[in-house]
Specification:
The structure holds 2 protein chains of 2 kinds. Chain A is α+β, with helices and mostly antiparallel strands. Chain A contains 2 helices and 1 strand; from the N terminus they run E-H-H. Classes of the chains: A alpha+beta, B alpha/beta.
Amino acid sequence: MKIVAKPKTEEEILAVVHEKIDSKVILEEMVNNADLCVNHLCGCSQ
Amino acid sequence: MKSSQFNVSTEHPERREAILFNTLYGSITVWDESEFSVVKQLLSRPETEIRDETTNLIMSHLVEGKYLIDDKTDELKIIENRKIAGMKDSNRLDVVLMPNMTCNFACPYCYESHIPSSFMTDKTEDAVKLWLRNEIPKYKVILLNWFGGEPLLSYKRIISIGGFAKEMCENLSVGFMTNVTTNGYLFNENRIKELVTIGIFNYQITVDGPPEIHNKTRILKSGKDSFWKIFDNILLLVRADKRVKISLRVNFNHHNFTSIPELLKLFPDDIRHSLRIVYEPIFGEKCLSAMENISNTEISSTMIEYYRLAKNMGYDVVLGSVGTGKLVYCYAERENQFVINYNGDIFKCSVCGFNSEKRFGSLNSEGKVVLNEKQWNKWFGIEAFEEKCYSCKFLPLCMGGCRKTRLEHADTGRICRLVPTNTSFILKAVAFEKFEEILRNQYVQNFENQHQHAYNNFPIELNRKEVNQNEDSCKT
């Protein structure tokens, strides 16, 4: 058995909407996570 | 214990392995054949009595990876909560500004109805600024996207409103991210310098193939070619500032699909890392639509092949991982998201006719949003998900599909928007039945990263077929 990815917690997943999160973290998340595409007019509909 | 509703697995006989992925929690585990037979047994009958150490170990991992969950866990409630959190996200304001609804191009596949002289007035600009002045302090991050029409036809509005927003965000320590979707024709050195100064580092520019192909669809209204002017502007842009990133979008159908590799060869090596490649099938009229003229298998296989080619050639290719965490299907589901047209009309979705009769509201001269409550309530009044979504294993990756489609096609039942246009790459993969392939690739990539070990022989089935050259009355 090889663990490729561990499960995310709800806390991690909902961190971007948390009232105490820093704006830099939100921006980093947007840039680093392509599934939350920054340039969402590219057609990816994120 | 019970099995999670969101386990997806794919077996790989040649490697004698199987990959188990949970779309809700994002866990991925690779098992060898003998382990996987136990996994399947435990997932189908979690209450099986465990008699040996190996089975016990596998059971522990299935619980740890949340493939097996507590009987009381309501996974559908978890997804509903994510969606509500995303829709009500009060940390970010998403704004799409359309300073005009006209264009200097006459692309045959464009879905917009352009109106000559449809430019934002000083009065509307003032209203937008007043609105931003009130709104920006409420958020942590502002996303300002310039769209049109062709936004660079309203260059001064971009500088004026964009500069205003940037300065306000800086003064209030609010995160600011901004981009322009443009045909790329109207840049020059001075403009680029000024755009970069107001923080616009992200651009989306469409190039539909090498010159002889591109010039058939990306035509100026005057009938002139546009390729080399756009090409030169792309070079100017990325060489002006290291922070500039261009999403190089290729809209494709049966006419230009196979010319993409030739296009990729044209851009010099030193700028390729600044160009993020995005391939999008053309939708709309039957004679131009990619899906009407090329088989799904051909589209999906070739896209994967061309993305790989682009990556190997040094372009930026970010397809999105199979990891989970999506909160809404698209930006239009967010309550704090507004598409503002040149005349102050407000919409939710940027893919529409922008008919004033169907607007969701408007900006008044005092910079206040006056909502069309009927439209607004209709948009947000539907259930979080359609009934059929609740039994779909891919729901956490999709989050319910296109809201506009759901509203428009509620009576026909055609509400699942797992269609391969204007969705994320992952959802395209699901729609094209290529998800398992992507999952296998993801595993190889992650494993390579973790172990610095090359697994070059992981097979990708590229079932290339002849492109369906369905010649008809199309002129392009």
